[in-house]
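Page 47, continued from p. 46.
Same chain as before, 110 aa.
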Amino acid sequence: LNLQWIFLRDPSHRSDTVVKIEARRLPATLAPLEKTFAEHEWMLPSGFSAADTMIGWTLLAAPRYVRFDPFPNIRAYVERMKARDGFKRAQELDGAPNFHREEFYAVGES
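Result:
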């Protein structure tokens, strides 16, 4: 969805079919993570790891494409991640991400 909405900025290059498929698929891919975060604070039972760094960015972008209301454990995970000192220091250095033009990209809208 990032590719379709963000990197293919010209709407004529965007595939509405791909957007619809991916927008429907995203909540299903979040379901196992919701379960994981019900059982663990971080991706691995051993604690914060590189796995959290990788999935963390995805979970910061995902609410642009799917409503997070049904995912309270993921929302709590994202808040834990944002509260980490390393996250705060990185954001101070890099600033807030600014490549999304919209707060939410609804399927069927440009």
